[in-house]
Amino acid sequence: MLWSGWGDPAKAADLPEPVRELLASLLGVRPPAVPAAELGQVRLRPVALTPLVLAGLSDIVGHDHVRFDDETRIRHTRGKSTPDLLRIRAGDGSDAPDAVVLPGTHDEVAALLGYCADNRIAVVPFGGGTSVVGGLTASGSGFAGVVALGLRRMDRLVGLDTVSMVAELEPGLRAVEAERMLAGHGLTLGHFPQSYEYATLGGFAAARSSGQASSGYGRFDDMVMGLTLATPSGTLRLGRAPRSAAGPDLRQLVLGSEGAFGVITSLRLRVRPAPEVTVYEGWRFASFAEGTAAARLLAQRGPLPTVLRLSDETETMVGLAKPGELGAPSDGGCLMITGYEGAGEEVGAVRERAAAALAGAGGVALGAGPGESWAKGRFAAPYLRDSLLAAGATAETLETACFWSELPALYEAVRRALHDELASPLVMCHVSHVYETGASLYFTVVTAQSADPVEQWAKAKRAACDAIVRTGGTISHHHGVGRDHREAYAAEIGDLGVDVVRAVKARLDPSGVLNPGVLLS
Amino acid sequence: MLWSGWGDPAKAADLPEPVRELLASLLGVRPPAVPAAELGQVRLRPVALTPLVLAGLSDIVGHDHVRFDDETRIRHTRGKSTPDLLRIRAGDGSDAPDAVVLPGTHDEVAALLGYCADNRIAVVPFGGGTSVVGGLTASGSGFAGVVALGLRRMDRLVGLDTVSMVAELEPGLRAVEAERMLAGHGLTLGHFPQSYEYATLGGFAAARSSGQASSGYGRFDDMVMGLTLATPSGTLRLGRAPRSAAGPDLRQLVLGSEGAFGVITSLRLRVRPAPEVTVYEGWRFASFAEGTAAARLLAQRGPLPTVLRLSDETETMVGLAKPGELGAPSDGGCLMITGYEGAGEEVGAVRERAAAALAGAGGVALGAGPGESWAKGRFAAPYLRDSLLAAGATAETLETACFWSELPALYEAVRRALHDELASPLVMCHVSHVYETGASLYFTVVTAQSADPVEQWAKAKRAACDAIVRTGGTISHHHGVGRDHREAYAAEIGDLGVDVVRAVKARLDPSGVLNPGVLLS
Asked: Which of these, B449, B457, B459, B388, lies nearest to B33 by C-alpha position?
């Protein structure tokens, strides 16, 4: 993973010329005055941990698995939000951990947590490093230091129960590797968020991830049948049945806890047969309102495609639904992508019924072209963002979910907030996940970088978050809370809700070393 | 509701003669030596609350809504488990609350909780009174008294959002009344547990209920989009979207909390169009193993019927799947009931595909007869139990869920435990709820009453619970924890899990007045 941006540097994509022209003429984007820092130029604090403490960490995981060289520290600094990238590109390594420790087993994780609690060392559980909400930016204030607890050595498929269709997997396993392992057994998880190529299973669980095919395969939290959580106070082992009436579902308390309660060391996940057939196609609707009504119809009356995604007029015009064709002329209206995965006969039947419903709701079938183009570019947007940043534009996303009846007002309120705060931004939106009672909205914003692009975006983001809270949406449908959404999250669950989360944390992490400043301030 | 048994006394059913003969000859059941107590014979403790305290309660809810006459106290004593009925039929009113208070609003509930916390009065939230796990048997020890907080006045349909398909309903509304109200709008919740005719929505939420049609409509916890919880520490208002990544899902912490954290005063529930068509039919499988494999096939490969229920050989033989035809000769093997509800065309398509899958898995179609017979008797089993108790038999149920691969061993272990503890019992079982990764098992046990039938059953139940815990199942799929499953629940979530639940309770109910002894000991 590129330390200052996304993914494999070899895959970096230059912006097409029409896009460059559009940025310059429409948004007034100018190349940045200062070039991005080189790795060697990133400013780091000295390692705060004493040699004695570093030796103590080595005693637990072995000397090779405690790293505090500059490059390793930089590669574990913050996540991949646009402000994160702007900061690291400006050479700001101030949030770097003092060391990175790499446990290989549950017992090593448990021992590390005990040691860090005893020595007042803050711990940042680190999977793929793809957080876009500040989930990896722990506060070291009041601590002897900060270690990133890298989970990449815990990357095994531990067991497979093909009768129950449950796989036991380790948290540091990257989704793309998990899919490769499961494919060998004819199976899939079916979880494909945009971070798919780098994110880990533990991260999906800790942050309540949702993927592009979640309409068909369910959210990640739907897949978690069981989990093990190492905490400074001991180990929680949860999940004896798919569903239970034995008290509150504590699995659902760990999911979304973002490393603040403990470190997930094992996951038992529902798997499915790998699809025999995958079909992606496009539909055009005259307006976002009409397309949204059609999406709601499928969500409430069925059948629901495996993938259902509807771009608004702006996103359709710019072509962002198909990053591979960015800037290509659109046919107007709003583009919907529908995808079907499964056994051949079933896909045929579902697709036929869905197509009839969409046509009845005013959709015009565009065939497989747009669907295939979307599928080709479905993990490419983060690369595109890197190119935009380099060109002098700020590009960032934010997302929410709400009940259907609130969706039009929420959509307008967020757009207005962003337009009010930023000078002529490009604000695009799509519905990416639908439920019977509501849907998510995913906004992408592109604007010319000001002299202080971090503060520029912070102001705009605050305004957008205020709009979300005010109009009744949740502050995140799938990115999580991190540091960036703490205030909105607190407003969402209220003071008493915050106190409940604090009470759980105090029990599991009494010294407060786990991801301090994340989830709760 | 009959104070000493189930439901409407006018609907009480005498046992058919073949059943009486079977009980006598096979199980050695003899009529009880002592007749059941009359209402006036139930022994009650004097009301422990002082006139001053009673006046304080009246100040909050009004004089008419504080009751402490004998009959009202008896009608709020314990729930409807077989031990509960055996005790009350023996005239044992020792667990009666000192008073029953009937708030009409959220604010009155909140005020009552504050008052009871200040005055160290234990509070038992009371909906339909149908708990079968001791969920209404609070411990008054160390308290100034016990009040049952009856929710029956909070029975309104507060709002209906037909765009989002969400209804706001009050917790004291009985399910049967909720369905009547929603039917006026062409809608349904689709939640039909055996307690349907008496249980309330708040009780479903507090106990994580699952219904006979949950394969199609989902469990009750799937339906809860939002809720309001009054606690002695303030009010929690949760649920701003169908699903969220904003931290742990606190809704899932309240669901299943069984009145130990607070009182649910409002629910926002997902509703669906009332079905145009309902079809129930029967299938015969050669064995429980074969039928289970077929059920698993539908759960994992689809399509899943709205109702899917498979009786084992014994339950099929006795005819308990069709209480209206109890004792009628069976065709052998195992009876599966499949039900389909929805729009006409959809029902037809799903039914056709499911039928093909079932036939392919060895099922023999029995047509609509057994399905209709099941549907006719689907809420009748509790009446049947009353008749069995009166005849001198103990009849009780217990249930669990596990992953598919563990199901055969769990089934055998529970059967063995019951056979070991009871002299020639009749042990019947059915799979009532299926998931992709597992299923529930629901056992019905009939045996001759010993001289101390409460202790007799307690011993057998303990053995069955031990078997469940030992073989990896959850202690309850839909009945809940109550007092009866506390130890098994603690074993299931472990000491640290118990501590987490305690920490939440301590924050929301610091004086511990809420349903003491329920969920946690």
From this structure: B449
For domain A277-313+328-363, say whether CATH 3.30.70.3450 is its number. Answer: yes
**Which candidate from B246, B343, B493 shows the least CB-CB separation from A489?**
B246
Nearest to B86 by CA among B129, B34, B155: B34
* Interchain pair B242, A496: CB under 8 A: no
Cβ neighbours, 10 Å, residue B144: 16
Pick from A448, B86, A343: which is nearest to A351 by CA? Answer: A343
Residues of B in contact with A481 (CB under 8 A): 245-247
Kindly report whether the global pTM for this prediction surpasses the value 0.95: yes
CA atoms within 13 A on the CB side of A186: 7
- Residue ranges in B394-439 assigned as alpha helix (H): 407-421
Name the region of B263 (left: φ>0; alpha: ψ -120 to 50; beta: rest).
beta
Residue B80: name the closest of B212, B179, B194 by CA.
Answer: B194
- The H or E element spanning position A394 is strand A393-403
Contacts of B250 in chain A (CB under 8 A): 493, 497, 500-501
Dihedral sign for Cα atoms in the order A232, A222, A519, B231: negative
Cis ω on the peptide bond leading into residue A303 (within 30° of 0)? yes
Q: Do B255 and A248 touch (CB under 8 A)?
A: yes
Q: Which residues of A touch B504 (CB under 8 A)?
A: 248, 500, 503-504
- Domain at B9-150, CATH from 3.30.43.10, 3.40.50.300, 3.30.56.10, 3.40.640.10: 3.30.43.10
Q: From CA B201, how far away is CA B351, in angstroms rounded?
A: 30
Which residues, including other chains, have CB under 8 Å from residue A406's CB and lie 6 or more apart?
A438, A471, A472, A473, B164
As for the ipTM of the complex, it is 0.97
Q: Which of B306, B308, B316, B309 is nearest to B286 (CA)?
A: B316
How many C-beta atoms lie closer than 10 Å to residue B235's C-beta?
Answer: 18
Q: Mean pLDDT in runs of 10 for chain B (521 residues)?
A: 93 84 91 92 97 98 98 98 97 98 98 98 98 95 97 98 98 98 98 97 98 96 98 98 98 98 98 97 97 98 96 90 66 93 91 97 96 92 93 96 98 98 94 97 97 97 98 97 98 98 98 97 90
Q: Which fold has domain A157-273?
A: 3.30.465
Residues pairing with A224 in the sheet: A269
Nearest Cα to Cα of residue B419 among B15, B87, B27:
B27
Structure tokens at A100: 């990175």
- Report d(CA A464, CA A487) in Å as an integer: 13
CATH number of B277-377: 3.30.70.3450
How does pLDDT run across A328-337, given as a tens digit for each residue?
A: 666 789 999 9
Buried b (16+ CB within 10 A) or exposed e, A87-105: bbbbbbbebbbbbbbbbbe
Torsion of CA B476, B478, B483, B485, to 10 degrees: 0
Residues of chain B contacting A508 with CB distance shorter than 8 Å: 496, 500
Q: Test B235 with A496 for CB contact under 8 angstroms.
A: yes
> CA of B208 to nearest chain A CA: how many angstroms apart?
5
Choose among A124, A122, A118: nearest CA to A145. A122
Determine contact, residues B68/B47, Cβ cutoff 8 Å: yes
Interface of B with A in 237-296 (CB under 8 A): 237-238, 240-250, 252-258, 270, 272-273, 296
In the block, which residue shows the tokens 């504080």? B66
The residue ranges of every structural domain in chain B are: 9-150, 277-377
> Tokens in use for B233?
């520490």
**Partner-chain contact B405 A164, CB within 8 Å:** yes
